[in-house]
Amino acid sequence: MTGVIATSIVVMGNGSVSVGYTHDCAEQIVCYHNEKTNVYASFFTEPSISLNLPGYSNIESINSGVEKVLISEEKLENLKKLETIAHLKDNWNANGAKAFADSLITKVRNLVMFLDVQPEIFPTACESLQLEYDKSDGSHLEIEFSESENAEVFSVDDKGCESIRSICSSVDAINKVVNDFYG
Amino acid sequence: MDNTFEGAERLYRAVYPPSHPGMFWKKNGKISPSAFADPKGLSVERGFYRKPERIVEKMKETFTGCIVSLSVQDCRDVDAIVKYLPSRENEYHSEIHGSDTVALLNKSQRFHLAQVANEEYMEE
Q: Tell me: the pLDDT tens digits for B17-33?
């Protein structure tokens, strides 16, 4: 996303995230505080921003239970795409696919916030969301999330060998699978 | 036109949703396997000896979104089943199923079909 100087994130009370971009801002840091959700958004000229979000632990505690989470451009793109997917209505594929449950969107959003390596995110007509990783050697990893507690992991290695398994859809479990994929 | 398909016959798939042309395309330029996941089977327009340009133009009259194509042989290579299922509105309507009994393509089938899918029309 070239030319973007500042980025904003607003997490609403219902868990939805609004991601916006501001061009041509002078160097400044603006903090935003929503009384209902205790979310802060910061603006920087750097290609990442920080989001202070209570209840999550990723890097370091900065004050009174508020944790600091780094937001990369890739993460922002994914949050924005999730918002687009969240707005798809019933029959979005013209073949009866249902709109996505808020709980599924929220689950995947929470994962995206804390994944070490950002995936590419895609909807499916099976009421599921799929995170995908690809390496230049042809290796492929996809993790499919539904409202079930588990996630389906399908991978193809550089020799074309395929495997499929079910894992817990926790951040730690997903990070482990992704880190294993990247060796 | 019947349920007989030659391996070289191409099958054209409109990729929804409209107005979000990049939704199923990856940064490496390939379509995501997720675009081939549909529990009702993958609706396609069979080519049946028509010129690709004519097929795409006809589909654009009815569908919005991007259009990709696969060959019948591509489907057979992954043990997917191509079924001729004409509708009242479209005599060329067909579907790709995972097997004789399951409409949904499995993950392996989706992955391989995504690898060989050819872009026919990209909505801007």
A: 777 878 999 999 999 99
CA nearest neighbour of A88 among A146, A115, A128: A128
Burial class of residue A1 in the structure, from the number of CB atoms within 10 Å of its CB (0-12 exposed, 13-18 middle, 19+ buried) = exposed
Residue with the larger pLDDT of the pair A54 and A160: A160
Q: A142 and B28 in contact by Cβ < 8 A?
A: no
Task: Give the SS3 label for residue A27.
Answer: coil
Q: How far is CA A18 from the centre of its chain?
A: 13
What's the CA gap between A33 and A36, in Å, rounded?
9
The distance from CA B37 to its chain's CA centroid, rounded to whole angstroms, is 11
Do B55 and B45 contact (CB within 8 A), yes or no?
yes
Domain range summary for chain A, segments of one domain joined by +: 6-73, 88-181
Q: CB of A159 within 8 A of CB of A139?
A: no
Q: Using an 8 Å CB-CB cutoff, list chain A residues near B43.
A: 95
Tally Cβ neighbours within 10 Å of residue A75: 21
Number of cross-chain residue pairs from A and B with Cβ atoms under 8 Å apart: 65
Is A158:A139 a contact under the CB 8 Å cutoff? yes
- ipTM score for this prediction: 0.92
pLDDT of residue A40: 41
The one-letter amino acid code at A41 reads: A
Question: How does residue A48 score in pLDDT terms, banded at 50, 70 and 90?
Answer: low
